[in-house]
């Protein structure tokens, strides 16, 4: 299965909030936290991304970057970024390729038949490009265990 700990992190090339392509190839040699979230402007997603925002200096100090990915369009992600003063990339997986590659699709999200969103999940990628740690939510209202995320980044090669 894709997205398993120890496996090569699936590659992606997605649009950021400004319409520029962001490629996972740019993460080579860096530790990365990839946070998939279901929907811009939902309260739990704002809590999650703002918690990562507030800890960004801590992640930078341990040579890690934070990236968020949702299936929302780049315009919604951009407004969400601006409303919450998010300084890390929020990428639009509107074709749902990254969520499929990482195995984090949430079909019929929020009772919307046919709408697939990202399952709230966090992947820590090591400098070798492999998945060092992952967390998958069971319900959309779960927040990631932030201290575990940071510990996983610290432990990753």
Task: Compute the average pLDDT.
Answer: 92
The number of E-state strands comes to 9
Q: What fold name goes in the CATH topology slot?
A: Glutaredoxin
Specify Rg, calculated over alpha carbons. Answer: 14 Å
**What spatial order of strands do you see in the largest sheet?**
5-4-3-8-9
Describe this entry's structure for a reader.
The chain has 157 residues and is an alpha/beta fold. The protein has a single domain, classed as Glutaredoxin (3-Layer(aba) Sandwich). The protein has 5 helices and 9 strands. It has a 5-stranded mixed β-sheet. Strands 1-2 form a two-stranded antiparallel sheet. A two-stranded antiparallel ribbon has the order 6-7. The longest helix is centred in the N-terminal third of the chain and has 12 residues, at 43-54. It is globular. The chain starts with 12 loop residues before the first strand and ends with a helix. The mean pLDDT is 92.
């Amino acid at each position: 299965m894709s997205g398993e700990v120890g496996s090569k992190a699936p590659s992606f090339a997605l649009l950021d909030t400004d319409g520029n392509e962001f490629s996972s190839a740019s993460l080579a040699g860096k530790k990365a936290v990839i946070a998939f979230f279901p929907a811009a402007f939902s309260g739990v997603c704002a809590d999650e991304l703002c918690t990562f925002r507030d800890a960004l200096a801590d992640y930078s100090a341990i040579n890690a970057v934070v990236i968020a990915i949702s299936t929302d369009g780049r315009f919604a992600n951009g407004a969400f970024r601006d409303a919450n003063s998010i300084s890390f990339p929020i990428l639009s997986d509107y074709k749902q390729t990254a969520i499929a590659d990482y195995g984090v699709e949430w079909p019929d999200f929020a009772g919307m038949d046919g709408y697939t969103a990202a399952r709230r999940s966090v992947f820590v990628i090591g400098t070798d490009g492999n998945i060092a740690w992952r967390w998958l939510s069971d319900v959309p209202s779960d927040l990631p265990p932030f201290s575990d995320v940071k510990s996983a980044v610290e432990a990753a090669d």
